[in-house]
Amino acid sequence: MEKTVRREKTKIKDKSMSLFGTPAPATFTLGVPSSKLSDKASQNTTDGLIPSTSVSSTENAEKKENPVLRFPAVLPDSPRMESPWRKVQWTDEQRTALMDRISSYRPSCEEVTRAQVLLLGPVGSGKSSFISSVQSVFNGRVVNRAMVGCSTPSTSFTKKLQSFSIRGQKGEGLAGLALYDIMGLGDGDMTGLTLHDILAVIKGHAPDGHKFSSAHPLSSDIVGYVKRPSLKDKIHCVAFVVDASKILTYPKGLSAIFQQLREHISDLGVHQVALLTHIDKICPQTAKDVCQVYKSKVIRDMINKAGALLGMSTSYIVPVKNYSSELDLDVNTDLLLLSAVDHILQYSDLYFLDNAEQTQLKL
Ligand SMILES: Nc1nc2c(ncn2[C@@H]2O[C@H](COP(=O)(O)OP(=O)(O)OP(=O)(O)O)[C@@H](O)[C@H]2O)c(=O)[nH]1
Ligand SMILES: [Mg+2]
What we know:
Elements: H1 39-43, H2 57-65, H3 92-103, E1 115-120, H4 127-139, E2 162-167, E3 174-181, H5 195-203, E4 237-243, H6 253-267, E5 271-277, H7 279-282, H8 284-288, H9 297-310, E6 317-319, H10 331-362
Parallel strand pairs: 1-3, 1-4, 4-5, 5-6
Antiparallel strand pairs: 2-3
Helix pairs in contact: 3-10, 4-10
């Protein structure tokens, strides 16, 4: 029996300990239960995660339990590097060049008209926001097409599998890319995603619009089930999405879940990348000016931590700031989002390349 993960609880009960049926380690606890964060801290919109030096005795007790985190009322500027650790051309020209490249992208494989990318990550990590943000860049204004929600920590706002195409600017046709939104990992017992369902989606069995329920695993009985999926039905790349402001408080067992997922997904020959969202929440300078992203030590450290969580080299991980409260586009935010899409497309291309090689070997 496959099980789902509850993130709300500090100790996860045996029956819901693992997303995928294998018991998670007994240490499967949350670093900081959200109820323990002070109101002030949890209301602070520019909060970040830094070690605290001055805390009260009650806070001290909490600190002992959770030595890593405090949410100060006002964040000091975070340390910065002299020169950026990744190079980006923060110019309008580069933004246009990336938009052109993505709009005109076509998979190298003839049978397939679009690279299909599945976004996978914990509840509230920003999967739907990423899709909406990318669509906003191409629409020329901020839109909320993939429904972005205010999910509770354990319940995903997105409930079904939904693909979103990217349309080039000024009436251009569809780009050869579809981003698939799905419900979050770590949902409640009744509605959670199972490993079985995730793999069925990646193998191409799930119809677009399928609503997930752990009570009804994806099977050939459901309407629209794709019995013999071809290459065009499959997922060609998986982008894990993790929230930078929660990396330190995700349940310990999540790392094991990611490892398990990555092994199964790799067995299917699907390449994986990762997006680190909410970077504006951990670095005030980057919140003010996205160009600062690759000079921020806090963000670089968090990318290392995301790499450890996902069991992934940091070269696969890119930071993004999704549009969340903004009404207007910002050229640098666009650039980071477009660079992430470009990064995803590089790994989708590897899938098509691997596939072409295998087909040639069979001939
Ligand atoms: N500040 C900030 N907020 C973000 C960012 N990305 C997403 N959010 C906010 O985070 C919340 C959750 O975002 P969603 O896009 O709904 O997350 P999701 O992964 O689709 O969540 P589920 O569908 O519930 O699994 C929303 O309030 C978003 O506005 C980001 O990069 N920065
Ligand atoms: Mg969503």
